[in-house]
Structure to design on (483 residues):
């Protein structure tokens, strides 16, 4: 944009007669205030988190096209993350489907594929391209990202690095002595072998978390199978009230069929559908085998994934800090989405995310909005880097741990919410409600961050002293005069 409206000031600028108002004098930036510079972002993974962000960037914040270019690197051969790879028999979401998408895994993956096509969300996705190392470059204020495609590595660069690599993504065999020397067939829920014929076999199902619960009845149904369930501890299934009661029926079944009439009403009456979804979030009743019902706040299930949050490739931040080393004992983040010493690095579902309360997918949308706020601020305020302060995160973790002690997640059972430990800190779930999290991320708390600017004077963002609005003669420059 070209220069100021005030002709006298224009002359002053040309003569470089800038008054020295600060200790460090910098030339006036001859652009309107808050003119954005173009930033680059690298987004790791093409699962639901990253695709949510891309949808917001492309369709809800079209102004971002002028502010941000981005590339999405996906290690696998297709988009969809969790719902691409988890194809075991019976795979489905384990929350009421109305606060997720659909029930069955294949339906969920189809839905993701459909929305990607409808909104052209894969425009910037590079498949079969794995991020194998990320390195912060202090001087440039950018990330060097090493990616591997077809066995060939190359370097990519971006000011902003976003992790959408998922928190239940890296599956692992259970730590059971002798498992590796078992001569029969071994299969993991996250890498199901569909070519093997399971019928007529004696099958051990180890684990009774969400996946184990879904697989077991499907295998038991097969011709001639003899299925044994090996359970480390009990699984608690919670339901505050019968789902049918929410629909106004007297059926006490915890999982009633939706009638054709229900389905018609959900389709035709969005308000009713929305009210129904809201009620489902509050189901919190545990049903025990002996028929008792106990109201609780939270459910905890074991899973077969690496839940350490530690990256499996070098993520090297400021002062050569390694994220894997920093998080080796306790993964501690700022609101699950950033970490001290890792500037311009934003994370979906990092440590202590909203994974156990409310709707996770709505939470991903809130985090995407938060990231966009930061990117806009960085672009328009000449910011080089932002990272949460270490003392802020220390206080946040200390206070959060105290809240968590009052919640069910700290109960004495082994759980992935506690990195698979019986005792110890809760590392997976946020220390509070989904609504509190939403409030926290709805605004940037700048005071929690260490911000570095590109110029020695942070007010370079003031540009030539005018707003872009004033440069358009058609605009009313006195709109703020009250009647
Ligand atoms: C069996 C199962 C059932 C679930 N059910 C529910 C449910 O009912 N409700 C709920 O809220 N949540 C559920 N979840 C959690 C689910 O993971 C999230 O809801 C959501 O799908 C996470 O999306 P995401 O994009 O964050 O991560 P993911 O879906 O895991 O996607 C991450 C992507 O990043 C890619 N990636 C990882 N590392 C790299 C790398 N180095 N380079 C390039 N790409 C990389 C992966 O290939 C993957 O495609 C379930 C998870 C599982 C495993």
């Amino acid at each position: 944009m070209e220069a100021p409206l005030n002709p006298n000031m224009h002359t002053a600028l040309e003569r470089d007669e800038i008054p020295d108002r600060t200790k460090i004098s910098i030339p006036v930036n001859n652009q309107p205030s808050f003119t954005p510079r173009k930033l680059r972002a690298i987004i790791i993974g093409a699962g639901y988190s990253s695709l949510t962000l891309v949808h917001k960037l492309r369709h809800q914040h079209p102004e971002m096209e002028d502010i941000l270019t981005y590339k999405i690197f996906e290690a696998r051969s297709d988009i969809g993350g969790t719902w691409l790879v988890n194809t075991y028999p019976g795979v489905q979401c384990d929350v009421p489907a109305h606060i997720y998408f659909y029930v069955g895994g294949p339906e969920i993956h189809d839905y993701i594929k459909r929305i990607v096509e409808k909104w052209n969300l894969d425009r910037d996705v590079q498949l079969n391209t794995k991020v194998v190392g990320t390195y912060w470059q202090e001087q440039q204020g950018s990330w060097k990202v090493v990616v591997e495609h077809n066995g060939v590595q190359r370097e990519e660069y971006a000011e902003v690095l976003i992790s959408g690599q998922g928190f239940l993504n890296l599956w692992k065999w259970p730590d059971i002595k002798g498992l590796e020397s078992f001569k029969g067939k071994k299969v993991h829920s996250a890498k199901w072998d569909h070519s093997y014929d399971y019928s007529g076999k004696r099958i051990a199902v180890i684990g009774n978390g969400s996946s184990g619960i879904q697989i077991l009845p499907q295998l038991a149904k097969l011709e001639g199978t003899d299925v044994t369930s090996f359970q480390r501890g009990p699984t608690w299934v919670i339901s505050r009230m019968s789902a049918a009661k929410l629909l106004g029926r007297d059926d006490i079944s915890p999982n009633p069929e939706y009638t054709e009439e229900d389905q018609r009403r959900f389709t035709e009456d969005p308000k009713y559908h929305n009210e129904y979804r809201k009620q489902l979030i509050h189901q919190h009743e545990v049903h025990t085998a002996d028929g008792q019902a106990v109201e609780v706040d939270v459910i905890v299930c074991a899973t077969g994934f690496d839940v350490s949050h530690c990256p499996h490739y070098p993520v090297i931040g400021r002062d050569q800090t390694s994220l894997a080393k920093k998080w080796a004992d306790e993964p501690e983040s700022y609101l699950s989405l950033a970490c001290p010493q890792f500037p311009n690095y934003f994370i979906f579902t990092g440590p202590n995310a909203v994974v156990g309360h409310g709707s996770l997918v709505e939470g991903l949308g809130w985090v995407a909005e938060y990231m966009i706020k930061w990117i806009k601020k960085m672009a328009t305020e000449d910011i080089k880097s932002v990272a949460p302060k270490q003392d802020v995160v220390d206080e946040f973790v200390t206070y959060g741990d105290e809240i968590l002690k009052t919640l069910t997640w700290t109960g004495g059972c082994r759980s992935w919410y506690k990195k698979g430990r019986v005792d110890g800190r809760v590392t997976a779930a946020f220390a509070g409600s989904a609504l509190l999290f939403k409030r926290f991320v709805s605004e940037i708390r700048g005071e929690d961050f260490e911000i570095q600017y590109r110029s020695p004077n942070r007010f370079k963002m003031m540009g030539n002293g005018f707003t872009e609005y004033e440069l358009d003669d058609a605009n009313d420059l006195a709109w703020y005069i009250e009647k």
About this structure: The mean pLDDT is 86. Residues 44-50, 73-76, 81-82, 86, 91, 93-95, 100, 130-131, 164-166, 168-169, 210-211, 313, 348-349, 360 surround flavin-adenine dinucleotide (CB under 6 Å).
